[in-house]
Amino acid sequence: MADHETIETNGPANPPKLDAGKFSDLFPIRDQLHFFDHAGVAPISGPAAEALRRYGEQASTRGYVDSNWQVQVRAVRRGAAQMIGADASEIAFVPNTSSGLCMIAGGLDWVEGDNVVITSVEYPANRYPWEDLRRRGVDLIEVAPEPDGRIFAEQVADAVTNRTRVVSVSHVQYSSGYRIDLRTISDMVHQAGGYLCVDAIQSLGAMPVDVAAMGIDFLSVDGHKWLLAPEGCGILYCRGDLVELVHPPVVGWMCMVDADRYGDYRFELRTDAGRFEPGSYNVPGVLALGASMALLEDVGAEVIWSRIEALTTRLCDGLASKGYRVFSPRGRGERSGIVVFEPPSGGGSCADVVAALRRQDIVIVVREGRLRASPHFYNTQEQIDHLLDALPA
Ligand SMILES: Cc1ncc(COP(=O)(O)O)c(C=O)c1O
Q1: 102 CA to middle of ligand 1, Å?
Q2: How much distance in Å is there from the Cα of 123 to the middle of ligand 1?
Q3: Is 336 in the pocket of ligand 1 (CB under 6 A)?
Q4: C-alpha angle with apex 385: 379 to 388, nearest 5 degrees?
Q5: Range 107-121 average pLDDT
Q6: Atom 8 (ligand 1) nearest CA
Q7: Domain spanning 20-44+301-390 has what CATH number?
């Protein structure tokens, strides 16, 4: 596979130069597969794999004795905060995106007649926690997308009422790749006295995310997609001044101030996001997540996003010239790392296309009846061209 791709200058077609050869050790998957499913379960980065190996070595030879795991966990928390422009006190480690969203949905003090606004096409992780609130008299308002997959932020904002406590949306939709304008929504929901909660699993790691600039109050994400980390360890961001408004729905020993004074039994919840961590950390998961985040920070969110923009634009152009229909909205500000497309009529079923590609070690998937490809920054132009060549005409 191509190693030394040198594409330079700015703009979607020409992302910043990246010595892709430098990354072959860091992404050994490139020697095995043309992998384009980072919106599914992504491969972990080389540094994440190395962190797991080091953890295994330490844990199996000396256990926690002489380990610096707790120091590392604190460093990862700081790194995660930095990545989204937050403070470490606003970050909790969670087992997945769902758990983080459930902390918020289950933890706010709902009053009968309150409502939550979502879109009608959310990944179920960002639906059921809110739908479950119907038991507490909370209404769910759903905003449907346009037939072309767009969900105008203004439409979401228009659905906000004076009883809206939360708008909860995916930053990037899993089944269309559509990226929504969060600022417009947050301005509206804040005016109405509510909060913006974001499922960022399809954006964080692929593009810059800044909670303050975007007006995000709560954000949840697992590591297993664009963050190139293992499944089962993610982060929840809770805006500092809102932490004490959210009573953790799962209360455990680590939620407490002075948690390590085990026998004191003083029920006093922490006043930082640590209150959303009921018990022991998934230490290997946190360390691996930290290693991948450090790599992504090192490359730089802007560089990563420029690469992804260029690779996906090249893919979309190539798809169009092969007669495939690109479904993903691709305007500036609405595109993402996800390209959803349909075969030309008579071009075989989506499942057939995926199977034919898999036989050639090319990985894309079917989602909601369409094809979905999601390259990350370390993929190369040559890999995109290989995918295009391999797609049945
Ligand atoms: C938008 C979105 N949210 C959440 C998830 C996964 O949720 P969890 O991390 O809880 O497994 C996915 C997985 O495909 C997703 O696409």
Answers
A1: 13
A2: 6
A3: no
A4: 115
A5: 98
A6: 97
A7: 3.90.1150.10
Give the mean pLDDT of 350-361.
96
Task: Determine whether the shortest distance from the Cβ of 175 to ligand 1 is under 6 A.
Answer: no
Q: CATH 3.90.1150.10 in the chain: give the residue spans.
A: 20-44+301-390
Ligand 1 centre to CA of 6 (Å) is: 33
For 77-109, write each residue's pLDDT tens digit. Answer: 999 999 999 999 999 999 999 999 999 999 999
What is the spatial distance between Cα 171 and Cα 337, in angstroms, rounded to a whole number? 12
Q: Where in the chain is the domain with CATH 3.40.640.10?
A: 52-298
Residue showing tokens 């959210």: 246
Q: How far apart are CA 345 and CA 392, in angstroms?
A: 12
User: How far, in Å, from the CA of 168 to the mean position of ligand 1?
Assistant: 14
Ligand 1 mutation target, pool 97, 120, 372, most atoms within 8 A of CB: 97
pLDDT band for position 25 (50/70/90)? confident
Whether the pLDDT of residue 365 is over 70: the answer is yes
Q: DSSP letters along 245-272, please?
A: G---SS--GGGBTTTT-GGG----B-SS
Query: For domain 52-298, which CATH number applies: 3.40.50.300, 3.40.640.10, 3.30.200.20, 3.40.50.150?
Result: 3.40.640.10
**What pLDDT does residue 347 have?**
76
Report the nearest atom of ligand 1 relative to the CA of 174. Answer: 16
What share of the chain has pLDDT > 90, as a percent? 92
Report residue 43 CA to chain centroid gap.
14
Ligand 1 atom closest to Cα of 224? 9
